[in-house]
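Lab notes, practical 5.
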Amino acid sequence: MKHTRFNAHHKKLGAKMIEFCGWEMPVEYKGIIDEHLACRAAAGLFDVSHMGEIYLTGKDALAFVQHISPNDAARLAPMQVQYTGLMTPKGTYVDDMLVYCLGYEHYLLVVNAANTDKDYAYIVSRKGSFDVHLENASDRYSQLALQGRKALEILQPLTDIHLGDMKSFHAAYGKVLGKNALVSRTGYTGEDGYEIYTLDPDPGPIWEALVENGKPLGLQPVGLGARDTLRLEAKLPLYGNDIDDTTTPIEADFKWIIKFKKGDFLGRDVLVKQNEEGIRRKLVGFELIDRGIARPHYPIFIKGAPAGQVGSGTFSPLFKKSIGLVYLPIEKTGIGTEFEIGIRDKIARAKVVPTPFYKRDY
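Output from the prediction step:
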């Protein structure tokens, strides 16, 4: 297994470690519910160094980003960030990703850990005649996510970047604890917060300083378990559960990332047709009416007939109920519509509810 540069720090804190996408990662420290609620109430610190970072540079860098993504990267000024998808010619997802404009001929693509090698190989395969240089820099990077309403207060004393001036989905280069870093106001929890990228070979002191600085303010280190429950409450999709190479952004309720007016891109013709003719299914949020917890891939039924499976599903630590995401036929996606989920040896009733389940109030 691969180890992040913070591995020893997790073990020192008594984290329960598991294998995840070829990495040894912390799944929890004090417990998933405690970590989840700490992030919602104050702050959480996540080691996300397993994520993938791909450099894209050269004269045709912007044109190539425009080719592989449905969003409009031409709208990005240097040090702005954009959420988008990496598209197939069928208009479906290879992955979802963040695009950082580091300069007009220099972009950083941040992709999911489970897909890094696949994504890089796919991007290389689409290069064609574009004058662009590609580099998988993932193993060189360490990445931390500091999330929650106390994030700015915790991080500001440790950096020379004026965090209060940084808008959401913007970034800046600077020092964190004297180490060179790229800091962006982004995250995967539904909270305000920052992601810290560094190429420093010894980033451990940053982790230690954030833990120490944040402890009096209620910060807790957070593992993969609570990272998953936090992102689901915020209706942030997970590749392999909620989006994949069979789903389009329109079906996944992410039509807003598609900018048809920008011109051609991979899968555009399919997405134009879907947009004009309508879709047959859509990703919606649900909660259980009956007791139980709906887990990923549990079967769903409509009036007793098989109708697919749960995408993401869990027990919400904040709302104390079972919630999840599922693709339903478009005529069954209205708020309050009921369907059934097979949970082990029983059938539990569920209903469609508004999303996101959680939206921050600050």
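Observations recorded by the TA: The helical segments are 7-12, 32-41, 61-68, 116-125, 151-155, 204-214, 224-233, 268-277. The chain has three domains: 2-46+141-233, 52-138, 280-353.
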